[in-house]
Design goal:
- The protein is an alpha/beta fold.
- The strands form two sheets. The chain has a five-stranded parallel beta sheet with strand order 2-6-1-7-8. The protein has a three-stranded antiparallel beta sheet with strand order 3-4-5.
- The protein is built from nine helices and eight strands.
- A hairpin with a 2-residue loop joins strand 4 and strand 5.
- Helix 1 crosses helix 9.
- It has a single domain, classed as P-loop containing nucleotide triphosphate hydrolases (Rossmann fold, 3-Layer(aba) Sandwich).
Length: 224
Amino acid sequence: MKKPVIAIDGYSSTGKSSISKVIAEKLGLIHLDTGALYRGVTLFALQNCANEDGTLNFEKLFSSFKDIQLEFKNEHGELVLYLNDTDISKQIRSNKVSDNVSVVAKQKEVRDFLLQSQRSLAEKGGIMMDGRDIGTVVLPNADFKFFLTASIDERTKRRYAELLSLGIDANEQQVKENLIIRDKIDSEREIAPLKQAEDAIVIDNTALNKKETIDLILSYLKNI
């Protein structure tokens, strides 16, 4: 019997990736953090396609897709993202990448570049994929769809704590402003905006910790 395909979408810092990772491990599924792929493209753009004023040259980025090799490697049971054979798992969490990832992700060319690779990974089933448009665009026929949300203050607190844990300097107010801007860009972009799929189960984890959120999602998946 083919293992299920599960899509988890939602806002930044609702814990999508870490929660999906735990659930996938419990259910024997592969977990794919699609946000990491967009962050990987953003990192490449910042390193190779930046103008002198710090803005990104998207035409140069689009013509450089052939030079971008993104790959998840299984290291000790964990999928680690590599860009052209270099581990970038920590670099993609930097403030600089966070400040630019939404504007990169809203480019149609970037989404098209990553779309087919994401779908190919899900074809055989047994995958849990999280992002912002998984249930609506990437995997509209997923067996299960969830949408995670939480208050902006709670998400700010979580993101700020995450940055500090990674040894990245951060200002809590700046973190909040960054999240608000990202929410706006992600929700209002013309191509594959962040939105809840009609058949998705909404999980508001403002008042739930990680374990409680995981247990709630697993309660919907107990028969698989």
